[in-house]
C-alpha cells in the first residue's frame, strides 16, 4: 500500500529521503546529521520525521550564529522563512544552473556567498540569487 501524506500537514517531512531532499542532501547524509543530533527531528513509530519550518528556523539560526549575528527568529507578525539553504557544491550548482566544477572554483576563490558548516559548503538561495543577478549575471 502506498502511503499518502495528509494534505492538512504539508509542513511534515516523512522519512530520511524526504528530509535529505528538502535540505539538499542524500538520505544517508541526513541520517548521519540526525545521528549526530545536528538536525531537529522526531519519530512517528520507527520513521524519522521533521517539520520544514523547524529545519528552516534551525538552519537560519546556525547561519546567523556562524556569521556572528543576532538570532533571526521571526516575530509573530512576520512570515516564516522559505526553504532557503543549499548544502554542497552540487546543490548550489543546480540552483545556479552552472557546472559543479565552476562552483568549486568560485567558492575556492571566495567569490560565492557561501559558508562552511561542519565541513559542508552552505549557501542561501536568496544570497545566490542576489549574487547571480549582480556579480554572476549571465
Describe the structure.
The protein is of the alpha+beta class. Among the domains are: 12-52; 85-134. It has six helices and six strands; from the N terminus they run βααββαβααββα. It has helices at residues 16-23, 27-35, 52-66, 89-96, 100-108, 125-134; strands at residues 12-14, 42-44, 47-51, 85-87, 115-117, 120-124. The strands form two sheets. A three-stranded antiparallel beta sheet has the order 1-3-2. Helix 1 crosses helix 2. The longest helix has 15 residues, at 52-66. Mean pLDDT is 78; it is low at 78-82.
Query: From the alpha-carbon coordinates, what is the Rg to the nearest angstrom?
Result: 16 Å
What fraction of the residues are assigned to beta strands by DSSP? 15-25%
The biggest beta sheet reads: 3 strands, antiparallel
Q: Considering DSSP H and I runs of 4 or more, what fraction of the residues is helical?
A: 40-55%
How many E strands?
A: 6
Distance between the termini: 47 Å
Total helices: the number is 6
Strands side by side in the biggest sheet: 1-3-2
User: In sequence order, what are the helices and strands, one letter per element?
Assistant: EHHEEHEHHEEH
**Mean pLDDT figure:** 78
- Low-pLDDT parts are 78-82
Shape: globular
Structural class: alpha+beta
Quick structural overview:
By secondary structure, the chain is α+β, with helices and mostly antiparallel strands. 43% of the residues lie in helices and 16% in strands. The model is unreliable at 78-82 (pLDDT under 50).
Amino acid at each position: 500500500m502506498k502511503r499518502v501524506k495528509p494534505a492538512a500537514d504539508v509542513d511534515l517531512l516523512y522519512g530520511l529521503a524526504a528530509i535529505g531532499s528538502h535540505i539538499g542532501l542524500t538520505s544517508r547524509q541526513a541520517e548521519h546529521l540526525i545521528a549526530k543530533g545536528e538536525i531537529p527531528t522526531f519519530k512517528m513509530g520507527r520513521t524519522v520525521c521533521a517539520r520544514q519550518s523547524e529545519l528552516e528556523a534551525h538552519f537560519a539560526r546556525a547561519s546567523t550564529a556562524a556569521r556572528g549575528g543576532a538570532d533571526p527568529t521571526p516575530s509573530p507578525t512576520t512570515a516564516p522563512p522559505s526553504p532557503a539553504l543549499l548544502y554542497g557544491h552540487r546543490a548550489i550548482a543546480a540552483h545556479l544552473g552552472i557546472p559543479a566544477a565552476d562552483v568549486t572554483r568560485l567558492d575556492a576563490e571566495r567569490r560565492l556567498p557561501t559558508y562552511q558548516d561542519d565541513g559542508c559548503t552552505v549557501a542561501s538561495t536568496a544570497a545566490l540569487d542576489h549574487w547571480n543577478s549582480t556579480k554572476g549575471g549571465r
